[in-house]
Amino acid sequence: VLQSGGNNIDSGDTSGFNQPTDQLNSDPLLADLFDNGGPVPTHAIAFGSPAIDRGGDIGPATDARGATRPFDGDDDGNVLFDVGAFESNQAAFIGALTVEDLTVNEDAGVATFTVTLDRDTPAFTVDVRTVDGSAIAPDDYDDTQVTLSFGGIAGEQQTVDIGVNDDDVVEGLENLVIELLNASNNQIDARDTAQLFLTDNDTATLTIDDITVGEDVGTAVVSVMVDKAVDGGFTVNFATSDGTAVEPDDYTSAGGILTFAGDAGEIQTFNVTIIDDDDLEGAEQFNVGLFSVSNPDVNDLDTSVVNINDNDVAQLSIDDVTVNEADGTAMLTVTLNRNIVGGFTVDAFTADDTAIAPGDYSDTVQTLSFNGVAGETETILVPVNNDADLVEETESFTVSFRNASDGRVDVTDSATVTINDDDMATLSINDVSNLSGVISFSITLDSDVDAPLTVDVATMDIPGQAVAGDDYQPNAETLTFQGNAGETQSFDVFVEPDAIVEPDETYQAILSNLQAGSRDVQILRGTGTGTIVDDDSATITIDDVTEAEDTGPATVTIRLNGAVQDGFTIDFATIDGTAVSPDDYAAAGGTLNFDGTANEFKTVDISLVNDFLVEPNETFTFNVSNLITLGANPAPVVAIDATDNATVTITDPLVTDVDLAVAIQESQDPIRTGDPIQYTVSLTNNAVIPATGMNWVTTVPQPLNIQTVTAPAGAVVDVSGGVITVDLSQLNPLQSVDLTIDAVAGNTPGIVTVSSNVSSVEDDTDPANNTASEQTTIDQANGIAGRVFCDANNSGDHDPGEEVVDTLVFIDQNLNSSFDVGEENTRSDFEGRYQFADIVGTNLQVSVAVPPSCNTIPDRPSVNRLVMPVGDVARAITSVDLGNDGDLDLVVSADFSNSLTVLENTNNGFVRLMDIALGDRPQSVFAYQPQGSLEPTIAVAGIGTPDNGGAVWVTNGSGPAVRHPGTNGPIDAIVGDFNDDGLPDILSASFRSPQLDLRMGGSLQSQIIDSQSQQILSIAAGDLIGTDSGHEVVVSGFGHGNATQLELYDFDAAGGLTKVHSIATPSSTVEVAVANVIEDVNGETNEIVTLLASGQIVVYPVNGSTIGNGVTTSVRRDASAFDFGDFNQDGITDVAVANLGGQLIELLVGTGDGRFVLITTVRNVSAPSDLVVGDFNQDG
Question: Do residues 269 and 291 touch, judged by C-beta distance below 8 A?
Answer without folding.
Answer: no
